[in-house]
C-alpha cells in the first residue's frame, strides 16, 4: 500500500504504481541500457535504479515487451493539458479546465453480457486482478497528432479471462460515464451519450490492449480518463474509451459513438492506416506533441501506429480500406 500523488485528490490506494521520480530515474536507466552505456553492469545497476520493477518488466510476454518504444515520452504537462474528452468540451484545453468535477472515487465497473461470470468490480478490486505494469505506448489521434505516454495498467485480457466469455461473445463494448452533473459537455449534442466504443474479441484479447489506471507513475488525471480507461495503441485514439463504467460482451458488432456520429469518417476498426485518408485530411504524417510546436517537422505515420509486427496477423485477409 502506498500513497499516490493524485492532482485534485489525495487518497491511499492499494497499488504498485511507481512514484514519478522513480519512473524517471528508471527511464534514464533504461535509455542508458538501450544505448549500451551500462551493458554488463545490469545486476548492480538494476539494484540501484529500481529494485524489483525491472525484473517485472522483463517478465512481460514478448509480444508486449517488443512493443515498448524508446521514443522520448511526451512531457507530462502536454499529456495532461492537450486532450480529447468531449464530455468536458471539444477544445483541447477544455478537459484540463473542466474535468475537476469528475469524481473518480468511489467507482465501479459492471461486466455483463455473454460471460459465464458477470461481475461488478469496485475500482480497488479491478486494480488487483493482475500486477500493474508500466508500458510506454505511442498513441495517435485521428486528428494527426501523437504522444508517447508511460501508462500503468495490465492487459485487458486479464479481465476477459476472469469473466469467462461464452461461445457467443464475439465483440466487447465499452461504455463510459455519462453524468450531466459531473460532465458539462453532455449538454451539447456533439455525440450520442454515453460515449461507447468496441473491439472484436480477439482484438480485445491481444496483450497490447491495456486496461489503464495511471500514467507517469500516478493515477490517471481526470482529463485523461480517470479512474480507468482503455489504451489500444495500434488504433486511433478514439478507440481508447475513458472513464469506463460498463463492459459488455456481445454477439453482434456494437455501435460506437464515432461511427454513429459520422459513419463515413470513423469506421469500427479504426486501425491506424496511413494509406487511408480521413475524408477531410491525409493520415500519412503526424505531429508529435511536445516536439517543438506547430513548426516541428511532421513524422511519417506507421501502419498500425508501428505495432504491425504485434497485431498485423489479427487482420490477415481483411481489406483494411473497406474495414477502416
Ligand atoms: N473517451 C471518452 N469517454 N470521451 C471522449 O471524448 N475521446 C477519445 C478517447 N477517449 C474520448 C474518449 C479521443 S478522440 C482520443 S484522441 C483519446 O481519448 C484522447 O486521450 P488523451 O486525452 O488521454 O490523450
Question: Can you offer a commentary on this structure?
Answer:
It contains 11 helices and 14 strands. It has 324 residues and is α+β, with helices and mostly antiparallel strands. The protein has a single domain (2-315), classed as Sulfite Oxidase, Chain A, domain 2. β3 and β4 form a beta hairpin. It binds ligand MTE.
Q: Kindly state the percentage of residues in helix.
A: 10-25%
Poorly predicted runs are 1-16, 28-63
**What is the H/E order?**
EEHHHHHHEEHEEHEEHEEEEHEEH
CATH architecture classification name? Alpha-Beta Complex
Q: Count the E strands.
A: 14
Specify the CATH homologous superfamily.
Oxidoreductase, molybdopterin-binding domain
Shape category: globular
Largest sheet: 7 strands, mixed
Give me the secondary-structure topology.
Layout: E1 2-6, E2 9-13, H1 20-34, H2 42-49, H3 53-58, H4 62-65, H5 76-79, H6 94-98, E3 108-113, E4 119-122, H7 123-127, E5 133-140, E6 145-155, H8 157-163, E7 171-176, E8 196-200, H9 201-205, E9 210-215, E10 218-219, E11 229-231, E12 244-250, H10 257-261, E13 285-288, E14 299-300, H11 308-311
Ligand MTE is lined by residues 83-87, 141, 176, 195, 224-225, 237-238, 240-243.
Compact overview of the structure:
This protein is α+β, with helices and mostly antiparallel strands and 324 residues long. Helices cover 21% and strands 23% of the residues. The strands form three sheets. Strands 5, 6, 9, 10, 11, 13 and 14 form a seven-stranded mixed β-sheet that branches. A five-stranded mixed β-sheet has the order 4-3-12-7-8.
